[in-house]
Amino acid sequence: NAGVTQTPKFQVLKTGQSMTLQCAQDMNHEYMSWYRQDPGMGLRLIHYSVGAGITDQGEVPNGYNVSRSTTEDFPLRLLSAAPSQTSVYFCASSISTGRGSNYGYTFGSGTRLTVV
Amino acid sequence: AQTVTQSQPEMSVQEAETVTLSCTYDTSESDYYLFWYKQPPSRQMILVIRQEAYKQQNATENRFSVNFQKAAKSFSLKISDSQLGDAAMYFCAYRRDSGGSNYKLTFGKGTLLTVNP
After folding, report:
1. In whole angstroms, what is the distance from residue A31 CA to residue B36 CA?
2. Which of A13, A81, B65, B68 stands 20 to 30 A from B30 (CA)?
């Protein structure tokens, strides 16, 4: 049981380049999300998905795209990287809420992205 | 919108002593969940403890316990018998229990805990 797998762990991009951060989970979780972590800012929600084919914007969606074609995968695309997107990115997943369930998220190990 | 506030950017504690990390939150909901996550230097986010708002009893997990004051919207974390491995960034987080956005976690900005030998 791998949990939530994020790749790559580190990445350096040049301004204007595009790339995709991969996220996969093997727990059959309906909910998946992407957060970015910046010093002094905590974790902020970029995009989230409540199931295959359904995505929505979070708090800081500009410059990012997502899609959810399968339950397992939730890639995050940077369309044209900017230095302001230098951050640590976390993918997280969760089962549906309901009393008696585990309401917490399972996080990936994060991707440290630097845009120069 | 819900907000989570951690007023202590940094805290320190002597090994084997007790430390309390503060968290307050703002919500108009009556049903929700609160969490404390630990992030060691490895960067991994680890769930420490969770509290359901409908439960009056404070959650406890070994050396970790919370003081949940629903009326005051306060959710502090107490770490007893602190160990060197407890040194980490700690995040308080909120999740509502109803409606279409009940899967979103809202985080505080974190408290960096140092444990001195």
Report:
1. 20
2. B65
User: E strands of chain B, at which residues?
Assistant: 3-5, 10-14, 19-21, 24-26, 32-39, 46-52, 60-61, 64-69, 74-79, 88-96, 106-107, 111-116
Provide the pLDDT for residue A100: 44
Nearest to B35 among A33, A42, A104 (CB): A104
Question: Shortest CA distance to A88 belongs to which of A11, A14, A15?
Answer: A11
**Is B35 part of the contact surface with chain A (CB cutoff 8 Å)?**
yes
What pLDDT band is residue A105 in, cutting at 50, 70 and 90? confident
The predicted-structure confidence for A52-71, as pLDDT tens digits, reads as follows: 999 999 999 999 999 999 99
Q: Say if B5 is an interface residue toward chain A (CB within 8 Å).
A: no
Backbone dihedral angles phi then psi of residue A32, each to the nearest 5 degrees: -135, 150
Band the pLDDT of A98: cuts 50, 70, 90: low
